[in-house]
Structure formats: structure tokens, C-alpha cells
Amino acid sequence: MMRLIRGTLALLAWIIIYIPTTLFVVFVMVKHYFGQRRVRKQRKQEAAA
Amino acid sequence: MSIDPKERETMLRFIERNVSVAPRDLDEGIGTVYERVVIDDYFRDMQSRYGIRTVLENPADGVTGVPGINSLEFARNGGTVWLANPSQRMLDGARPVWEKQKLIDQARFTRCEVDDTPYDDNSFDLVWNYCMFERFSDPSALVAEMKRVASRYVLLMTQNVYNFGTPFHKVYHAINDHQDWDHGYGRQMTLGAIRKALRDQNMELVEEGTVDIPPWLDTWDMPLRGELKQMLSSIGRKWEWKMENQGRAQNGSLPWSVSLVRDIEANLPIWFRKFQAHHLYVLARK
User: Fold this and answer.
1) Residue A20 needs a FRET pair 20 to 30 A away by CA distance; which of A26, B55, B79, B254 works?
2) Which CATH number fits domain B5-285: 3.30.565.10, 3.30.505.10, 3.40.50.150, 3.90.79.10?
3) ipTM score
4) Model-level pTM?
């Protein structure tokens, strides 16, 4: 019984921390995507010039 | 039974790229510090249970680009460690890490191919590698060589394909100018694949498990450190996780955040550990 309670509490704590950390990773990826897009656009413009 | 030259080349490129982006100040980030704490816990325990004195890491790798860091714990507990790698740059990068830890006298560095090492049969108590097994579609040549030079044990530790971080990292590669996927084969990142490779070499499985299950995605080698540093410096705070001041070796204590996450991990149910662990391992006897 104690094991079940401990496991459930650990799982709950894990999920509570997991949500913001995952959102942070998503934020970094989106930022990275737009950064890459900007660089590609810049390179294209430079090549055209 | 041989290693695909293309896979050999991809592995070498991956290792050398990681060495080139290694944080020169050895500021690894919390994810890596935490990973090392829990993996070192396992190594310390395993080393004492099986009386391991000599260790070969073949091929040796690093974490977050810090080369040669994985086997330090064996040396801290009195073992002698051989690091083998086809990349001289990786070995050159590993040397200062061991010097900084004052463990250089217990380390030997060898440049060689993963399936053709210069060691005699039965030379080491333990032969292992970290996230290298899955880089080969047919890892039998690697595992056979590991078995040949081991006198007792072979340990394989891999990424976990079931971790939610795997698809995220694939997306990361796709948006990063369609950077080639250089982390190996998903089908090799399972306990079943590791067990099979060891059984195919007629080895007896001793133990297996999951390790490194913090409440964040496995971001593989995605550079998050810089983002966190930048964000926190904008509000006048510092984000620094250096191996020398966050390690446990000096004063025996861990930062509270690392202790909290480790306690959570220790109590997670087994079914959950299997698909959210960042790493899987199997230890086999010759």
C-alpha cells in the first residue's frame, strides 16, 4: 500500500514538473525554427544580390 | 559480420562534432549533471558488487560534448580505465577532463577502430559503452570484440526509443536545416535488442534496467544550456552546472534540485520507468 502511495505521489510530482519543462523545450524549438528561417532568408537575399 | 563503413563514418562525425561544441568551461547543464549523478550511483554499486578493477570503454564517448566523462566514476572508486576511440580529437579532448579530475594516472587512451582493438583476449573486468550500440544496424562485430577483450562482464547502455523526447529530437533535426539523423537506429534502442545482441554472443544476462528518468524530455544533444543562460542572465541570475562544483565527490552533498528529482525517480512505478527512462542497460557475463 505504501509503495502504491509513494509511486502515485512520485508520478504526480513528475508530471507537475514535466509540463513546464516540456513547454520550455517546445519554446526553444519554435525559436530555433524561426531563427533558422531568418538565416535562410538572409542567405537567399545575399545570393540574389 | 562487419560494420557498415557508412555507419562508422557517421559515428566518427557525430563524436568529432560533439567534441568541437564541448563547453570549454565544463558547464554541462542540469540534465547532464543529473544524468551523471544517477548513472554514477549505478556504476558505484555495480563496481563494488562485482569487484570490477579494470574497465574499457569502447568506443568511449562523452556527455553534452564533454569527452571521456562517462567512465570517471570507475576511476574514482579505484579502478583503472582504458578509453578507446577511433577519433584522436575525442581522446585529446578527454585527457584534460581526466587531468582536471586528478585521475589521469588511472586512465589510458587508445586510438583504434571499435571492432579491432589492440588488446589481448580477457584483458578487462568490464567492457562497456554508452549510446554507441544503437549506431550500428548490425552491432555484432562490436559486441563480439567487446566480449573478446572482456574477462568477465559486458555492459551496453543505450538511448530509449520510447521516451517522448525521441520524436521531438527528430523534429529538431528536421528544422535544423534537415541535419542528418546521426543517433543510430530506433530499433536498437530497446531492452529486447540489447538482450538479443548479447545472447547472440552466447553471453549470460546478469541484470538489466532503466536509468535517468527526470521530469523533462530527453533532449539528446539539443543545446538548451545557452537558452537558459541567456534567459536567466537577462534577469541578473546565473545558470551554471559545472562538473567540478556540482559533483558529489568533493563534499558528499548534492544540490537540492538534483536530490529532489532523484527521490522522485527512485519512487516511480516500473511500468512508467520503462518508457520514460532516458537510458536502458543490460549487463552480461562472459
Assistant:
1) B254
2) 3.40.50.150
3) 0.84
4) 0.89
